[in-house]
Amino acid sequence: MTRDGTSTSHYDFDLPVDRIAQQPTARRGDSRLMVINRSTGEISHKQFSDIEQLMPAGDAIVLNTTRVFRARLLGIRENGTPAEVLLLRPLEDSTWEAMVHPGGKLKPGRTVHIADDLEVEIVSTTERRTRVVRLNTSTPVDQAIEKHGHVPLPPYITRADQPADVERYQTVYATESGSVAAPTAGLHFTSEILDALAAKGVRRADLILHVGAGTFKPVDTENPADHVMHEESYSLPARAAEVLNETRKAGGKIWAVGTTSVRTLESAIGEDGVFREKSGETRIFIRPPYEFRAVDRLITNFHLPRSTLVMLVAAFAGYDLTMQAYQEAVAERYRLYSYGDAMAIL
Predict the structure, then answer these.
(1) What's the whole-number average pLDDT of the chain?
(2) Contact call for residues 340 and 304 (beta carbons, < 8 A)
(3) Which residue has the higher pLDDT, 199 or 214?
(4) How many other C-beta atoms lie within 10 A of the C-beta of residue 186?
């Protein structure tokens, strides 16, 4: 069978469980960096701190400044058994869309006791089987979430969240709260690395895409076109659009940090190839074959098999080269996924 990345089963591959990073590196920026050259097919191995050497003056780096909030609420049901509520996004009338566990037990009308000053009321079930919930609290809702919520680490990190995760599962440039998962390619950057890039003449463009839980959902249809893509809200500010247009006009390259930045840029660029201020929701599903119009370089982490994220990488780097890179990552004992190592695709 010829594999070209157009079927979901083409993205089945074995990644050893012991390579899934359960903790971040001791210091931010100490991770490894795989460098993939699309023109030559060469794969080389560096440290993430070498990223400055790869970016010439006049290029632009695009950062997603979303902030992860403490979206995971742990409590008990009326009968005293454990329950979990993962807040996804605020709705109207002080309600939220949420995922709940155990799903079969938490029907409308049920409540989950989180703390003396916080209970979650199950209001209704949505078409996609998530819940609409109401947070009943004697304090402002944001304060109650911050006080009682847990860092929403991804499901493949099997330990409980720890105090260190509050800082480490967050980029150093995070500003606006709204994500239930970190834009993990950005976790490698330190303020010192960003300052060095700026001093070198690499321009910076900030945007926002609030990451939803659907980012971890595997594609379970053999034809990726049948996969229902989750929506995520984004915003490309006018200043960022100006920087990107000026960079392109001067012949510089645009570096997207993370798949979330890619999805935002490819959603926001105009049909004429010009960036303009824009905000909204995107369901863009980037997979082979795809012609990129907004991104020239990509910094990303290693992603799950059968995920929309690894399909995006394959669309950018080429299917064969992407699969080769993943095989080499396993052979070279790279650390994988959110707290793992990075790759730069040139």
Answers:
(1) 95
(2) no
(3) 199
(4) 23
Q: Are 311 and 278 in contact (CB under 8 A)?
A: no
For residue 245, which of 223, 220, 270 has the smallest C-alpha distance?
270
Q: Are 145 and 69 in contact (CB under 8 A)?
A: yes
| Predicted structure pTM score | 0.95
CB 205 within 8 A of CB 197: no
Measured on CA atoms in the order 196, 202, 206, 212, is the torsion positive or negative?
negative
Q: Is the dihedral of CA 250, 252, 257, 263 positive or negative?
A: positive
Taking the C-alpha atoms of residue 262 and residue 49, their distance in angstroms, rounded to an integer, is: 22
**Digit-coded pLDDT (tens) for 57-86:** 999 999 999 999 999 999 999 999 999 999
| Region 317-336 average pLDDT | 97
Q: CB–CB of 19/336 below 8 Å? A: yes
Instruction: Please report which confidence band the pLDDT of residue 1 belongs to, taking 50, 70 and 90 as the band edges.
Output: low
Q: Does the pLDDT of residue 216 top 80, yes or no? A: no
- Given a contact cutoff of 8 angstroms between Cβ atoms, the answer to whether 144 and 117 are in contact is yes
Q: Output 287-292 pairs: Cβ under 8 A, ≥24 positions apart.
A: 287/5, 287/6, 287/224, 287/311, 287/312, 287/314, 287/315, 288/4, 288/5, 288/6, 288/314, 288/315, 288/319, 289/6, 289/315, 290/315, 292/266, 292/316
Strands 278-282 and 43-47: unpaired
Residue 264 · residue 232 · CB < 8 Å: no
Instruction: Give the angle subtended at the CA of 50 by the CAs of 45 and 52, to the nearest 5°.
Output: 135
The one-letter amino acid code at 82 reads P
**302 pLDDT higher than 80:** yes
8 Å CB contact between 69 and 169: no
